[in-house]
Design brief:
Elements lengths: L3 E8 L13 E8 L4 E5 L6 H9 L6 E6 L2 E2 L5 H4 L1 E4 L11 H11 L4 H14 L15 H13 L6 E5 L7 H18 L3 E5 L2 H7 L2 E6 L2 E6 L1 H6 L4 H6 L6 E4 L1 E3 L2 E4 L2 E4 L12 E5 L4 E4 L3 E2 L1 E7 L3 E8 L2 E8 L9 E4 L5 E4 L2 E3 L4
Parallel strand pairs: 3-8, 3-9, 6-7, 7-8
Antiparallel strand pairs: 1-2, 1-4, 4-5, 9-10, 11-15, 12-13, 13-14, 15-22, 16-21, 17-21, 18-19, 19-20, 22-23
The protein binds adenosine-5'-triphosphate (ATP).
InterPro entries: AAA+_ATPase, ABC_transporter-like_ATP-bd, ABC_transpr_FbpC, ABC_transpr_MalK/UgpC-like, Mo/tungstate-bd_C_term_dom, NA-bd_OB-fold, OB_MalK-like, P-loop_NTPase
Family: Belongs to the ABC transporter superfamily.
Subcellular location: Cell inner membrane
Length: about 350
């Protein structure tokens, strides 16, 4: 397993790139821990695959270096980097049995046959294909074939990292849930460094210890699921993580207060917004109290989502989502209070400290 150091990496698909906007991947400078489970999460086109391909060696970055355990691998091929990869669509040898497909990477490296059998049987049980071990891969469903691909990615114990590129796209929803939990368990047992690309927040949040949120070619936050929820570093993280996402409203900062329309909201300190063109207040729907006290809102809609309700309201002309327990009473003349510790101030989309 390896610690992955991304040292001032940037990538542009055009050789003529000059401005920051020309780069599909803007500067990335991070060290990922040995044995960590990382998910690269973000919308289509944000640069996830570009970054993954730079780690695997399929792509050479325009600038910067990549190191595995302190060794520069920037110019090395995927094979030389000793990495296992699982792609979005299955890659299997149709004429081989399920067992032989899984054994292939081990036999290729002349692993003793007794060890091959033990390891393949372990993986077969994990992906729930033990009954089909002797069957040819030809004729299996796309779902089953993708499970073989996943298994092949996991079968070697000596890889530096395992990279997954949206591996559950073709898997049916129930199996998705099962495989996700199994991958998580396997990560805990094996200590593999894993990097998992997805645009699905549930997939990222259940799989990863650290979620790397990408937006427009940039890493906007690396954090645990709780950190992303409680302290989004960027308005995009607030919007993308959570359902509904974080409320954002334009505000004017006056000392230790945020002013929205005719309302003045006390903050925990003076936010550092000097020089910002746009200042916004962010608060998650879960941290707003709805009742008879506080600032007035007008309610436009209530959506019942099982154990909770989402109240859609308008606050000082701005849309506001509030999450309340299923049984809570919604007063006719509703008012709201914002939890002081849960509010964030964003200057030109980035969260700022409240220290003056
Ligand atoms: N081979 C290429 N040549 C030119 N531009 C490319 C190439 N591959 C990707 N891009 C561009 O680089 C940007 C980042 O693409 P990338 O595939 O890394 O995003 P992604 O987050 O993985 O998206 P998706 O989830 O759709 O795969 C996009 O604007 C894309 O159009």
């Amino acid at each position: 397993m390896a610690r992955i150091n991304l040292d001032h990496i940037r990538h542009a698909y055009s050789a003529k790139a000059k401005a920051a906007g020309d780069y599909a991947l803007k500067e990335v400078h991070h060290e990922w821990e040995d044995g960590g489970a990382y998910a690269l999460l973000g919308p289509s086109g944000c640069g996830k695959t570009t970054l993954l391909n730079i780690i695997s060696g399929l792509l050479q970055p325009s600038d910067g270096r990549i190191e595995f355990d302190g060794v520069d691998v920037t110019r090395l091929s995927t094979q030389q980097r000793n990495i296992a990869q699982v792609f979005q669509f299955p890659v299997v040898y149709d004429t081989m049995s399920v067992f032989d497909n899984l054994a292939f990477p081990l036999r290729n490296r002349r692993v003793p046959e007794a060890e091959v059998t033990a390891r393949v049987n372990e993986i077969l049980a994990m992906i729930d294909l033990a009954d089909m071990a002797r069957q040819k891969a030809q004729g299996l469903t796309a779902d089953q074939k993708q499970k073989i691909s996943l298994g092949r990615g996991l079968v070697r114990a000596d890889v530096n990292a395992i990279l997954f590129d949206e591996p559950l796209t073709v898997i049916d929803p129930h199996m998705k849930w099962v495989l996700r939990s199994q991958l998580k368990r396997l990560h805990r047992h094996s200590g593999f460094t894993m990097v998992y690309v997805t645009h699905d927040q549930t997939e990222a949040l259940t799989f990863a210890d650290k979620v790397v949120v990408m937006y427009d070619g940039e890493i906007v936050q690396i954090g645990t699921p709780a950190e992303l929820f409680e302290r989004p570093s960027h308005t995009f993280v607030g919007y993308f993580i959570g359902s509904p996402g974080m409320n954002l409203m334009p505000v004017r900062i006056d000392g230790t207060s945020a002013v929205v329309g005719d309302q003045t909201i006390a903050l925990s300190g003076p936010p550092k917004v000097a020089g910002a063109v746009k200042t916004e207040l962010g608060i998650r729907p879960e941290f707003i109290r709805l009742g008879r006290e506080g600032m007035p809102v007008s309610i436009s809609k209530v959506e019942d989502i099982g154990r909770q309700k989402i109240v859609r309201a308008v606050f000082c002309g701005e849309p506001l989502a509030i999450v309340v327990p299923e049984d809570s009473e919604i007063p006719a003349e509703a008012r709201v209070t914002f939890d002081t510790d849960a509010m964030g101030i964003y200057a030109d989309s980035w969260r700022v400290g409240m220290g003056g």
